[in-house]
Amino acid sequence: MKEATLIQVVDPKPEVRRNAETVTDWEYSEEATYLYEKAIVLRERLIDPIARVDRNQLPDPVIGFDNLRNYKVLAIYLLTRDEVGLNCRINFNTEHYIEQDGKKAWRWGRWAQMETLCHEYVHLWEQQVGNGRPGHGIQFTEKMQGMGLHPLPGVGCHMEVADEPFSILMQEWGIERPDDVPTDDGKRDWFKNGREIKGRSSLTKWTCGCQNARVGTKEFHATCDLCNNPFVPADIVVRAVLLQLEKEIEMC
Question: pTM for the full model?
């Protein structure tokens, strides 16, 4: 009888983190180090603080940085494995990083960044521990509210600055609570209101006449289910309308 060979299950996350924190030719290395440290404390203090006998501890996230091609998005949690097979992936949108004292800095400040990190980590919690369906529904809202954060149900934007126990942790870290928060209308993140930035989206806008779509490919072959018209580049439609207006003016 041949001897059985045990299948070794390897967790690449520690090596991925070690690489991110030690590379010297990557502009986000220092930022990655900071976020990894904070993510683990957020998990142990707020997100998954109680040791359980019926399941393993919530896994560490894999933290990355990418241009998400939509400035309205702060960060995302990938529901499936990424292009190299990693799961538990949180990507911060590089559109929201600026140069500050020769380093990469989160445009909205550390407090808002920690709310964002906690937000995405809770999506990981939903998938791994919750009902398996990450979103901004009741499960997400109740979990966030229990930690002192205030997301808008169904949307996910943070309507107010976070309270305890999240604020206690921020105080321990020396992150000051923002005191210049503009009046919010309840439809956007509290730190964005009145401070929006113009995006540099690389997505192409297409239209069928009754609705629009933005895609990241040069070609887009689709037909609208509502009007049955094919989608065409929106700039072509604009040029056609302007040309028609010019003809009508000449005829007047």
Answer: 0.74
